């Protein structure tokens, strides 16, 4: 278990991390779902992103 109190080192690092923390999210759209499901084509994807938080 990890205890976080207002004076603990863990809390202070969580409150103000020593480095910048970013999360990158990528979303993929299937551009040919019907053709793929019928077995006519390979799956085609369009990449959207990254969205950075």
Topology:
Blueprint: H1 9-15, E1 24-30, H2 33-37, E2 45-52
Describe the model.
- There is one protein chain.
- The protein is of the alpha+beta class and 53 residues long.
- It contains 2 helices and 2 strands; from the N terminus they run αβαβ.
- Strands 1-2 form a two-stranded antiparallel ribbon.
- The longest helix has 7 residues.
- The radius of gyration is 21 Å and the shape is rod-shaped.
- 0% of the residues are buried.
- The mean pLDDT is 94.
- This is Scavenger receptor class B member 1.
- Pfam families: CD36 (PF01130).
- One of its GO terms (molecular function) is scavenger receptor activity.
Read across the widest sheet, the strand sequence of neighbours is: 1-2
Beta-strand content: 25-35%
Q: How far do the termini sit from each other?
A: 28 Å
Strand count: 2
Q: Number of helix segments? A: 2
Stretches where pLDDT falls below 50 for ≥5 residues?
A: none
The succession of helices and strands, N to C, reads HEHE
Largest sheet: 2 strands, antiparallel
| Overall outline | rod-shaped
C-alpha-based Rg, rounded: 21 Å
* Estimated helix fraction: 10-25%
Mean pLDDT: 94
What structural class is derived from the secondary structure elements?
A: alpha+beta
Key words describing this protein structure:
alpha+beta; 53 residues; 2 helices; 2 strands
Brief characterization of the structure:
With 53 residues, the chain is of the alpha+beta class. It is built from 2 helices and 2 strands; from the N terminus they run αβαβ. The chain has a domain at 19-52.
């Amino acid at each position: 278990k990890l205890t976080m109190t207002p004076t603990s080192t863990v809390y202070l690092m969580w409150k103000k991390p020593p480095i910048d923390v970013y999360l990158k999210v990528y979303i993929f759209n299937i551009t040919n779902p019907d053709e793929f499901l019928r077995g006519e084509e390979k799956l085609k994807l369009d990449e959207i992103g990254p969205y950075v938080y």
